[in-house]
Design brief:
It contains 17 helices and 18 strands. It has 559 residues and is of the alpha+beta class. The protein folds into four domains: 176 residues, GAF domain (Beta-Lactamase, 2-Layer Sandwich), CATH 3.30.450.40; 96 residues, Beta-Lactamase (2-Layer Sandwich); 75 residues; 161 residues, 2-Layer Sandwich (Heat Shock Protein 90), CATH 3.30.565. Strands 3-2-1-6-5-4 form a six-stranded antiparallel sheet. Strands 8-7-11-10-9 form a five-stranded antiparallel sheet, sandwiched between helices. The longest helix is centred in the N-terminal third of the chain and has 54 residues.
Length: 559
């Protein structure tokens, strides 16, 4: 407890200055002890009743006024029986000698016992008792009661001494109350700080637990707070986000688009921006922006919600493509079925004409031409059926190198005539993949023939293959969401340095009946796409017009 000094010059001075001054000093020393108020008051009472020269009884008490009431509470007592303690536990102003003293604010010496309504004759003392008010700034703080024995002699000097002690008690009580108020204030402040910290932790846990990115900025776009998801989304552009200017991370134009909350309010859907990372990767970011206000309702910044929807966009595009392919497949199947039967009849009739047209060269030539065209249509219908109703694959563990070794000899002559080099870059110890080997051979043959057509002459085709371990699958999932992270894959690429394709062509390359060639049905790559899908494989294509094209495939590994 902080040490306090008391100015006793204002205290009434006793007639025996030296002895009484010594008592006052002792009381002051006790009042400076680092203890609770109740303990200090008890120590003072112990000291007073131990002063033998005053012939005090071994009975004394100090009552304190209950805040905001006219009620005295027994705070410290010495020599009281259990009955007396219960009787005097609470005393109202004006009731009993103590209550009268508190009400009137005047000290008194009472030779008679308290009224019978309080404690009866058990409080009778042959030497009487003092009731001294404890007053601070004109307001009663309590009452000190000191009992005398049958030898006690009441004197004005003793009364003055007790009043001086009461004045010290008033200062002690006031200081203790101020200390307690300060302690309460500090405790309240500590509790408030703890609550604020807990609330901050709670808010932070909510922010960090969000599945979308969150940025909090000021009006200029300085990032005040961000969560882990936002940091992950914007990591390619900045290692840290907090205290950074959004324009420095994304550029002024993109930052202005995000911070323009008026655009967001005018739109009923979330806005999107496309960002290109330093490595050339495209990120499609969905965002919404709302203004941030202070307690007065003034706009002080923005709250921005971010989501990386690159993968979602890819999945949606793939689903739309699959829906289109499925619809076209149904139509192709129906048309092929309806056309094949009439063609069979036409061929039979043409053959019959040919048999009966001996010696008639004109009829023979017409019937041969009809049969030839019917055969061509049947070949076309076979392609339709291959696309519309693919054969159920007979999947088994297959060596990728073995399939290539059987496929490449089929087109060696064509490669030599066009002066095209075919390079194989296969990783050592490639595991077997789970596919139908016959179907995969057709896929590879189709891709190589397309590459030859794209190169025309004097070019290069590169076939590469490597294992993608389980812990690296996530790297490819953004653009191949159907890859399973608990499986290994073999990634195969077919690259050529041919004429490449424009973006518009690249979008439709796997759609049926789409072709840039003057001949053909446009079903080749559609059949490749569907065949690989039936074999639980994935294929994508990248191309730069005038420079190169790369087909990338993922095959499940035999576990």
């Amino acid at each position: 407890m902080e040490s306090r000094q008391y100015d006793i010059s204002s205290f009434p001075q006793p007639q025996d200055p030296l002895k009484h001054q010594e008592i006052i000093n002792d009381i002051l020393k006790i009042s400076l002890e680092p203890s609770q108020l109740k303990d200090q008051l008890g120590h003072i009472l112990d000291y007073l009743i131990s002063l033998g020269e005053f012939e005090f009884n071994r009975k004394a008490a100090i009552f304190l006024v209950e805040p905001d009431s006219e009620l005295l509470l027994l705070t410290a007592a010495r020599g009281f029986s259990e009955e007396q303690g219960l009787a005097c536990r609470k005393v109202r102003f004006g009731l009993c000698h103590c209550g009268q003293t508190a009400r009137d604010g005047k000290a008194g010496f009472f030779a008679s016992p308290p009224p019978l309504s309080m404690a009866g004759s058990t409080f009778q003392s042959a030497g009487g008792h003092y009731c001294v008010p404890i007053i601070k700034d004109g307001t009663p703080s309590g009452v000190m009661v000191i009992y005398g024995n049958h030898h006690h002699s009441h004197t004005p000097a003793t009364a003055q001494l007790l009043e001086s002690i009461a004045n010290i008690l008033a200062t002690v009580i006031e200081n203790q109350r101020m200390d307690q108020q300060l302690i309460n204030l500090v405790n309240d402040l500590r509790i408030s700080i703890i609550n604020l910290r807990e609330e901050k932790k709670f808010s932070d846990s909510i922010i960090q637990g969000l599945h979308h990115g969150l940025l909090v900025t000021d009006l200029q776009g300085h990032i005040i707070k961000s969560n882990a998801v936002a940091q992950s989304i914007l990591n390619p552009f900045a290692a840290t986000l907090d205290c950074r200017l959004l324009a420095d991370i994304l550029g002024r134009k993109k930052a202005a688009e995000i911070l323009n909350d008026k655009t967001q309010q005018a739109s009923k859907t979330e806005n999107e921006i496309t960002l290109i990372t330093p490595t050339g990767e495209q990120k499609i970011i969905s965002f919404s922006t709302v203004p941030r206000e202070d307690a007065k309702g003034s706009k002080v910044g923005y709250i921005i919600s971010l989501s990386d929807i690159s993968e979602l966009k890819y999945v949606r595009k793939e689903m739309e493509k699959m829906n289109r392919l499925s619809t076209v497949a149904e139509i192709a199947s129906a048309v092929a079925h309806e056309v094949r039967n009439p063609l069979a009849g036409i061929k039979i009739m043409a053959q019959s004409i040919e048999e009966n047209a001996e010696g008639n060269e004109d009829q023979l030539e017409c019937s041969r031409r009809i049969i030839h065209q019917v055969n061509r249509l049947n070949e076309l219908l076979s392609e339709f059926f291959s696309y519309a109703r693919p054969v159920i694959p007979n999947k088994c563990p297959t060596s990728l190198a073995a399939i290539l070794s059987e496929t490449i000899p089929l087109i060696n002559n064509k490669l030599m005539k066009r002066q095209i080099k075919l390079i194989q870059l296969l990783s050592k110890d490639l595991p077997n993949i789970i596919v139908d080997p016959n179907q995969l051979q057709q896929v590879f043959l189709n891709l190589i023939l397309n590459a030859i057509d794209a190169i025309r002459e004097q070019g290069k085709i590169e076939i590469a293959a490597k294992v993608v371990p389980k812990n690296k699958v996530y790297v490819h999932r953004k653009f191949h969401p159907s890859l399973q992270t608990d499986r290994r894959y073999v990634m195969v690429t077919f690259s050529d340095n041919g004429m490449g394709m424009p973006a518009a062509t690249l979008e439709k390359i796997f759609e049926p009946f789409f072709t840039t060639k003057t001949t053909g049905t446009g079903l080749g790559l559609s059949i490749v796409y569907r065949t690989l899908k039936e074999n639980d494989a994935i294929i994508t294509v990248d191309s730069i017009e005038g420079r190169m094209t790369t087909f990338t495939m993922f095959f499940q590994v035999e576990e």
